[in-house]
Structure formats: structure tokens, C-alpha cells
Specification:
The chain is mainly β and 122 residues long. It has no helices and eleven strands. The relative contact order is 0.32.
Length: 122
């Protein structure tokens, strides 16, 4: 199994920014970010293909978050700007072991990180 380790979470005031990182133990196929708030289902945030040339975003974060990756470092990033209290959640990075599946369904990803907490205060 591919190991994924997230970092960069923390506490920030509304309107602030955070940059999350996800270090993978080896090269993977498509990767994405999902989040889960207390009492809510896990939801899609953003995804990126292997080359980084195609990105996808949930409507709730479009224009505020940017997903990117550095293939030389096997690292995925999520730059989060203009954060809102509604963004508070545990953020997980995920990766596929093939080209199959969608980019937005968590069930289509094969490997998951342990998560990093993002808390946005009012």
C-alpha cells in the first residue's frame, strides 16, 4: 500500500490561508483532497491528474483553493485562501493505483492519508 502523509493543518482566522502538503511514498496516478467535518459525510474538495495538467474543484472551494503537485518529490499540495468557518474539517489526501474511476468519488481512490485538522475561527 502507498503511504500518504498530510501536513500543514492548523488553526486560522476566517479570511486567512493555509497550505496543506501530502507526501507519497512513491509515484501514484490521480490524486485528490477530501474533507470531513463532524456529523457530515466525507466530501470531495479537489483533484489533479498525474501530470498536473488537469485540475478539478468542488463548487464550494472553487476560486479559493488551488491543488498542485510536484512529481519529482511525490508531493501533493492544497493552497487554501480566503478560508471560511465552513472549511473546518479533517482534510485527507488520496491516490489511485490506476487510471480507472472518477476524480470526485472517494470510493474510486485506493490509498488514503491519516488526515490533518483545519480549523477556521470566526
Amino acid at each position: 500500500q502507498v503511504q500518504l502523509v498530510e501536513s500543514g493543518g492548523g488553526l486560522v482566522q476566517a479570511g486567512g490561508s493555509l497550505r496543506l502538503s501530502c507526501a507519497a511514498s512513491r509515484r501514484t496516478y490521480d490524486m485528490g483532497w477530501f474533507r470531513q467535518a463532524p456529523g457530515k459525510e466525507r466530501e470531495f474538495v479537489a483533484a489533479i491528474n498525474w501530470s498536473g495538467g488537469r485540475t478539478y474543484y468542488a463548487d464550494s472551494v472553487k476560486g479559493r483553493f488551488t491543488i498542485s503537485k510536484d512529481n519529482a518529490k511525490n508531493t501533493l499540495y492544497l493552497q487554501m485562501n480566503s478560508l471560511k468557518p465552513e472549511d473546518t474539517a479533517v482534510y485527507h489526501c488520496a491516490a489511485k493505483n490506476s487510471y480507472s474511476g472518477t476524480y470526485y468519488k472517494d470510493g474510486d481512490y485506493d490509498y488514503w492519508g491519516q488526515g490533518t485538522q483545519v480549523t477556521v475561527s470566526s
